[in-house]
Every structure is written in structure tokens, then in C-alpha cells.
């Protein structure tokens, strides 16, 4: 790899006056769209909370707007399951999804005042550690009882697996609500961590853009940590944490893009003035975004539209930068930023499929998280 980089350095046309980073594919500009997730919240979300696209924008916004009016919430059998006042020992919850329970029995009610009056101590310790409560356990169990019943009907309904509370009925592992989204978020986290170590080892401290690359890694790490937290347990505060972290990562990508592309880090009065104004503008934009969602109205459609707009703008910048550099240098590595953008757009298309989780575990959103791992690793090369 080092020999390959050295060979690339030798073929750069010095007459174009490119700076040190433009002659090194490792330090070449990198698109900032990799840090976003997620999530129906962004997801849902996360889910991100961590998505930047150029294609399918309007359709995806409509998708997010409708996911929170779920069919499952309105099913009479589901409402009956969570409301009927009968008793069943809570420790038998896992047994209720056996073959004998494929036919729903309204009298077999899980979450009752009689069962729960002793508090959440009846739940296993690993569930309590992840803040599962008796009512939440009841809701989770009823979702799978109803889903199993709908799948067992012959012939099954047109859409046997439906969403509840804006979310597919995932099967948890050790109390983790969306285990594969957590796993794939972890892979993205590790990719950013490895990339950060590469920056620290290979990039001179004196290089003026080093701090911007480093901060990009920090924003990516933060966004994927928040994505893991959110997909582990979906609460209002974890959802907001994921949304805000993903939004910050996306906006930082836009903030960094013109700094690298137009070299606003140069110590000239004009560029330094522009950099200060650009920094102030992006800071105010993020503060306004958080204030609107926090103090005025929590709006999923607006949040996604804002992230899509920011992500699209930076992707256009990086695509233009890749095309112009490739035409000038005639080297494949000069086109990497644009190719990474294309990869992310293809991965984003998984979100539009929105199919029920395969085996109860892997859905389109988790695959979107998986699809960003490769571009992240490529990005840091």
C-alpha cells in the first residue's frame, strides 16, 4: 500500500500547483456522508440518524411521515391483547410464543394489574438492566402473539406482518430491541475508530487539514454510538440523541467539504474571513435545527428533509470535485469521493424497500447500516 501511494505521488502533475494532500490519495478529499444512520428515527429512528442521499429523496420523506401511523396499533386483537384483564405469570412470557400459542386466546392476557402490581422485579435481570418494564414486556409479547397468529392463518392476510408504533416487530436478543442494527452500527463505529488511528499515524501534525479530518472521525464515532444506544432501546430520549448526533455528523460533513475543496484553511485574510463566517453560519444552523425540534415541534418529516438537503449539497460538492480532479489528473483515486457517494446512494435505496425483518431480525434499515461500513473503510484509505 505504501509503494502504491508513492507511485501515485510521483505521477501527479506539479504544474497544477496542487497542495500536499491533493497528491496523496490517503489525504485526498473524502465525502462527508458516511456518518449518518438511521433510523426510522433517523431514525427512527436512528435510526442514525445517520442518511445522505441524492436519489429517492421525496419518496423517502413520505415514507418516514407514514411509518408512525401503524396498522398494528389499530388491530382489534392487539388492543384486546394489551387490555383484557386476566392473569398469567410473567415468567411464562417466553413460552407464550410456542406452537400452542399460534392461535390467539383473548383470555390469556399477559400484562395485568395482578401480574404487575409487584413491580418490574418479576422481569429477568438482563431485561431490567435495559429498562424493560412490565407494560413494555406485555406490548412486545402481544406483538409477536398477533404476528404469529396472522402468519398461521390459512390463507394468510395480504400483509401478515405489520408495524406497531411505527416499527416492525423485531425479535430481541438479550433484551436488545434491534440486534442487527446495533451490530452493524458497531461495525461502522469500528471503521471510524480504525480510520482515526490511520489519520493519527500517517498524517503530519503540522498539516492544516488534519484537525478537520480528526473532527470528522469524532462526529462519526459519536453518531454511531448514539445509533447503537437507540437501536438497543427505543425511548424518546434515545431517539432524540440519535437524531441530533446524526444531524451533527451530516452537517459537519457539509461544513468540512468546502474547507477541503476550496482550501479555506489557507492562511490568507480572505479565506480566513470566509472560514469564520462559514463556521458561524453552520453553528447557527445546527443550533436553530435543535431548537426547532426541541422547543417548537418534533417533526420527523422536517428532520429528514433537513438532513437530506444538507447531505445532497455536500454530495454534489464532492461529486463535482471528483469529476474535475479526475479529468485533470487522469488517476482513478481522484474519482474515489464520487464513487463513494454513488455507493452510499445505492445503499440508501435499501431504505425504500422497507420489508418486514427477515427472521424477525434484519430489515432494510439495518442493511442500510451494513451498507455504509464499506464506504467508511474506503473513505479512510
If you had to describe this structure to a student in words, what would you say it looks like?
By secondary structure, this protein is mainly alpha-helical. 59% of the residues lie in helices and 0% in strands. The protein has 15 helices and no strands. It is elongated and about 70 Å long. The protein starts with a helix and ends with a helix.
Structural class: mainly alpha
The global form is elongated
The number of strands is 0
Task: Compute the number of helices.
Answer: 15
Note the run of SSEs as H and E.
Answer: HHHHHHHHHHHHHHH
As residue ranges, the low-confidence spans are 1-68, 85-110
Distance between the terminal alpha carbons, to the nearest Å? 10 Å
The level of helicity is 55-70%
Q: What does the radius of gyration come to?
A: 24 Å
**What is the strand content?**
under 5%
Structure characteristics:
15 helices, disordered N terminus, 381 residues, 59% helix, elongated, single chain, mainly alpha
